[in-house]
Amino acid sequence: MYFTLTHLSVSKTQGSLTKLLKSAGIVFVSTVVARGLALGAEVFIIRSLSPDVFGTIAVAYTVALVLGRLSLFGVPAGVTRFISDESSEEEQWTVVKHGLLIVAPLTVTASLVLIVFPASFGELMNSEGIKQYLTVFALFVVAFPISRVIIAVLRARGETLYAGLSKDLLSRAGGIVLFAGLASVGITEVGAVAYWVSLPIISMVSSVYLLNRRLSVSGVLKSTIDWSSLRDLWSFSWPLAFSSSLLLFFSNMDVLMIEYFLASEAVGYYRSIQPLRQVTGFVLSSFTFLYLPLATQYFSNGDFDTLAEFYKVTTKWITALTLPLVLVFSVFAADIVKVFFGPAYLPVSEVLSVLVGGLFFNVLVGPNGATAKAIDRPRIELVSAAVGFVVNLGLNIILIPRYGIMGAAVATVAGFVTYNTMEITFIRRSIGCLPFSANQLKPLAPTVGAALLLKWFFGGSVGFAGLIAIGMFLSAFHLVSMLVTRSIDENDIDLVRRLEENLGREIPYIRGALNRFSKG
Known about the structure:
- This protein has a domain at 27-272.
- It is built from 24 helices and no strands.
- The chain has helices at residues 2-48, 51-72, 75-85, 89-116, 118-124, 131-156, 160-184, 188-212, 219-222, 227-261, 264-272, 274-277, 282-300, 304-331, 333-341, 349-364, 368-374, 378-403, 405-431, 438-441, 444-458, 464-484, 490-503, 508-517.
């Protein structure tokens, strides 16, 4: 009986992992391309504006982003989870209508706050310059929550390609075209504002259009309100609203408090590396996109053993795929900054190294936030985020006046480490499982050592081509490290078998190597 149950659990995990990797591949490619477009746009903006002007616009954007995310009220995660449990199209549209009914009044209120009280934000942030931008950013606040609710529907239905297009690719590409057009006629400052404001607007329009190709969006108008279901969505969402608000604040607290304690120029320098620090989340966000619906199904079916195994295996591959990126951006941070922003921004290279290296802890704990939602424990995020926020806020107040932007980086890392530690502790109490495994951790040390040796070997400056070559080498080296440390198991071998089936041809050398070095 034990063998049968274990075999079934492994089989389910393998099938879900295959589906997850397909989805993650699509999301990862769209995310990488979109982040590449975003980075290119921001590099162009940074090089076109002075640090103080860029810093002022960045603060205005941060204020709008905070208000936009507050207006979400945790609804997108709730919409994804509840649609995953519904089978009929009518029931799914009812969930969507409930989500929009919750976010609509919050969105209107938040946008009116920006329009009516821009001067108050200027005084609060100790930045008179942001007043002129905030009224325009009210459009961002209106479109952002609506776009995220519609994308949540695409996510729940497994429409990974459409979600990636609307959330990342089309919005970024459209924003870049708009910015380039305005910059070409000499109004770069207006172009920078228009770029950020246009992102959720394009995302909203494209997501509605793409969803309508699969489901008639008129269904949301025809659906009826089920007050019991609306209360369920509200009950699920409000703890996420508070936790995501706290997470949002301590994700952006560094930028806001640098503006308060230092100057717009310091914000410009610090904000310039924010797109680069996001490399730690590329793979994690790609996997999490489909992980939540699959994990929710396991939990709803009472299949806790498979859920625990799925959690560990997913975390292992997120870690393996992220490590080479993290090592390039942390160990070779000075070269990264020089390549993207030029020698003038070299002082922030150490800050980038601390942020990327420290935020790798988010990767080591895997999709813990999605797991908390899947097991219907949204208050785990609320409590964890509250503790992390307090740590982050306190350290920002203490460290920024003394150590400047490096203090902000340390405070950010400490806040996220605290938050993640609390979250995995609560998850373990709920389902008796931690994300860590020996197969995840064993290959790390050899690859980190290889990166440090490469840094010592090259010594001086490394160019763009050299950084790409180092990243490719570390990726291959980590795969070898996984083989040598016998960190491969039956789930990994099954992925190769399924890949062979999809390709219609055998790849015996890879499968043979995995079989030879697997545990068992």
